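Q: I have 452 residues here and want to know how they pack in 3D. Can you give me a structure?
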Amino acid sequence: MFKKILIANRGEIAMRILRTAKEMGIKTVAVYSTADKDSLHVRFADEAVCIGPPMSKDSYLKIPNIIAAAEITNADAIHPGYGFLSENANFSRICAKNGIKFIGASPEQIEKMGDKATAKATMKAAGIPCVPGSEGLIDSYEDAKKTALVVGYPVMIKATAGGGGKGMRAVWKEEDLKEHWDSAIQEAVAAFGNGGMYMEKLIEEPRHIEIQVAGDQFGKACHLSERDCSIQRRNQKLIEETPSPFMTDELREKMGAAAVKAAEYISYEGVGTIEFLVDKHRNFYFMEMNTRIQVEHPITEQVVDFDLIREQILLAAGTPISGKNYYPKRHSIECRINAEDPYADFRPSPGKITELNIPGGNGVRVDTHVYSGYTIPSNYDSMIAKLIVTAQTREESIAKMKRALEEFYIEGVKTTIPFHRQLLENEDFLAGNYTTKFMEDFVMDRSFDNHI
């Protein structure tokens, strides 16, 4: 087992990893930018090393600085969390070259599944259902035009290096293709330095349902059931739940088997997620694989009683898995609490938290790194907390989430708490009747603004 883990991340995920490592008796090293010097992960780690100024490219994305921090603290493993370098094959490779265990996928697995066009080809070869589309990257607008005619409108243009909805465009008719093609490439180059594009058939009325998987170093994998992540804004998830209200026992078995097959086909090591689009007829199609821990992993932990961070560490240390699959025993919902103003098109709202009350009670979990007096920097993602509730049924979970949101009081910055309170009164959501298009018709109601 590892003696010391460096956590190459920040915020709530750094705290999440730190807690499990401490419970396992493993020493921890926090790294931080100058903007994060007052963050909780810096305070509670056994050691902390400043790795640069606020800009991510000069700190959390600066591989030499992170490797140097690991070497001077004698860390024998690095946990990348999510985002930043978590799916960077070069970082995984450099860790190995320096004798440091990367707690995550191998460079080859990241390369195979991180590039979306390559991942789709790999899954096709594995016999996993995929959305109809281009066979690989599309080289020109003329080729895009020809491909769209073959696939049939509507189509979705996607950046092969994409993530977080960047470089994605839905195109409903041919006359709009050129404009969306050019803007998608421009956005992808700006966000990822890679303008490679591919195309898929646009699945109408889709659900975004992902399967949590885990694989060991011996080629064996298992799944831990599904999460429904369909409520999104600009392809960014807002709320997740498990089990999905759209799921049937038969569909869960089919999707779980496909996810395990996919993981074992690439001999996947670590914890990861196979993401699917599911149409209204419950046909499912491979969308992408995330070769890392997910933001929404806590709801899976709550319903199967399983510490996924602990499992990541054990798998990286060479522990084999039992091979059995896990199914939800309860119902869990996660609301992402972002420092954003939902009444101003979700504009980021960094600043100082002047008052904070965190909800509690049976079945309520809050993963966060903020506290009263903490200043939210403007340099990073706006998520400041995850509110997770768990109960025996979906109805009980919703009631518990409503109560917890009423108790969650943050003053000094705008947050998405009013949005979640309104969402939990929406008839379609309450009925489990929602798709990835849900937010297109959602209008904020000011009556939910004052939550205390």
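Q: Anything worth noting?
A: The mean pLDDT is 95. The chain is about 30% helix and 25% strand.
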